[in-house]
Amino acid sequence: MKKISSLCVFCGSRAGDDPAHAAAARALGEEMAKRRIRLVYGGGRIGLMGIVAQAVSDAGGQVTGVIPDFLMHLEVGNTQAGELIITESMHTRKAKMFELSDAMIVMPGGIGTLDEAFEIITWKQLRQHSKPIVLVDINGYWNPFQALVASIVEGGFAHAKVTELYTVVDNVADIFPALAAAPEPDPVVLTSHL
Description:
This protein is of the alpha/beta class and 194 residues long. The chain has one domain: Rossmann fold. It is 39% helix and 16% strand. It has helices at residues 19-34, 47-58, 90-99, 111-125, 143-154, 175-181, 188-191, and strands at 6-10, 38-41, 63-68, 83-87, 103-106, 133-136, 167-169. Strands 4-3-2-1-5-6-7 form a seven-stranded parallel β-sheet, with helices on both faces. Helix 1 (19-34) links the parallel strand 1 (6-10) and strand 2 (38-41). Helix 1 (19-34) packs parallel to helix 2. It is globular, with a radius of gyration of 16 Å. The two termini are 28 Å apart.
């Protein structure tokens, strides 16, 4: 795969109850700045979003936030860390984040993070992109997600290779090797439906 110069990080607008999630977001931001990889994220300065953006910024890295106008005040748009792009809607926000990124990282988060994860994985299934997607499974956070996908496959609603559309890692240290080793999507994940 090509060299990664920008990473989209989907994550929560809340930090969650487990301090390991905030620590992982901070470590990811520091590592991205060290590697000179630009952060593309949801544009807020609260929750894990704010932590990863602040970590990149504090370490001298580049940050691009993308936030819809109606969320500027709800998610407290981050005007202090790098560039902030304001979009018209959630749809245009996700499209812009995708456009600006070479790969996607999905940290723990809420319903919005799940929406982003499923949408970007679905786009890959539909062969709209082949960018690597890595879910960071801090303390088993993504176990229910993996169980749901397994249930979808077992129920005959997806091909077993759908699980190859993304990689799950247990910690920040494994993210960059996973990005480098990400396989190309197998066409069967789409063609098996046709």
